[in-house]
Amino acid sequence: MIEIGSTYDLVVVKETDFGVFLDAGDLGEILLPRKHMPDDLQVDDTIEVFLYLDSEDRPIATTQTPKAEVGDFAYLEVKENTPIGAFLDWGLDKDVLVPFAEQHRPMNVGDSYLVYLYLDNQDRITATSKIDKVVSEDDQHNFYPQQQVDLIIGNSTEMGFKAIVDQSHWGLLYKDEVDQRLSFGQSIQGYIKQVRADGKIDLSLKSGQQIRDDHSQAILDYLSGHDGFAAVHDKSPPEQIFELLGMSKKQFKKAIGGLYKQQVITIEKDGIRLV
Q1: Assigned superfamily of 73-132
Q2: Closest residue by Cα to residue 186 from 202, 164, 207, 158
C-alpha cells in the first residue's frame, strides 16, 4: 500500500506542461512538478520519489530526499516560529511542522532538536519532540547480545547516554565505556552489549571482539613497559587486576586466554610473562 511520507518507485502515466503524473495506486495519480523531474523523463518510465502533501494538502511527489521519512527520528533545525508551531528544515521545499502541543520544550529558531515524524489525523506529515511517548521502554523486542544496531543519541544521564536503538527502543551506553565525544541527536553504529532480565538494553560502541582486542592490547602494552611481566594471573583477586590493568577479572581472563592460545604469553604461578 502506498502512503504519504515514504519513498516509492512509481511509473509515469501522463505528461503535462507543469510536470508528470505518477501512478500511486490507491492515492490515484500524483503530480511530480517539472522543477523536480529529470529532463529525459517520459511516459512509462519509473522514477523514485518521496510523497507528501503540498501547501493545499494535496498529495505531491518530489525527487528531493528528505532528512527523515514518516516513522523516522531526525535531528532537525528550526527555521521559523509561527502562531501554530515551529517549522523545521527536513530537506524539502516545504518545511515540517512541530505543533506547540508536540514540543517537549519551546523551540528556538536556529537550534536543532531530535524529533519523530508521523502522520496526523489528516495525513499531514508532522513532527514531535516528545520522544518518550514514541520510544518504547518495554521488554517486547528481539534484540540479542553482540547484535549490530543503529543508534541515535537521545540524552545523557548520571550513568551515561540514552540512545534510540534501531528506531524503536531505549538503550544505555555507560559513560565509563565511552571513549569518544557524543552529541545529542548523533547517529552512530553500536552493539547490544546485553539484554537484562527486565528487558532493558545495555549498549556498547564496540563489538565483543573489538573489546577483547582492546583488553589484549592493554595487557601487551603493560607487559612491554614492565620488562615483559605482570604480577597477576587468572587466580588473582579482581581488585588487584583492576588496579593494575583497569579491567574486570572476567575481561582479563578472556584476554589472557586468547593471548595464551596465540602463544604470545605464558601463565606462571606468580603472573603472566611475554614470550
Answers
A1: Nucleic acid-binding proteins (2.40.50.140)
A2: 164
CB atoms within 10 A of CB 28: 11
Q: What is the pLDDT of residues 106-154, one digit of tens each?
A: 999 999 999 999 999 888 999 999 998 888 777 788 898 889 999 999 8
- Second-level CATH architecture of 148-206: Beta Barrel (2.40)
User: How far apart, in Å, are the Cα atoms of 39 and each of 167, 173, 225?
Assistant: 37, 48, 66
> What is the edge-to-edge ordering of all strands in the sheet holding 229-230?
229-230, 271-274, 265-268
- CATH for 209-274 (1.10.150.20, 2.40.128.110, 3.40.50.300, 1.10.10.10): 1.10.10.10
Please, is 274 exposed, middle or buried when counting C-beta atoms within 10 Å of its C-beta (0-12, 13-18, 19+)? middle
Q: What are the residue ranges of helices labelled H in 17-106?
A: none
Which pTM does this prediction carry?
0.73
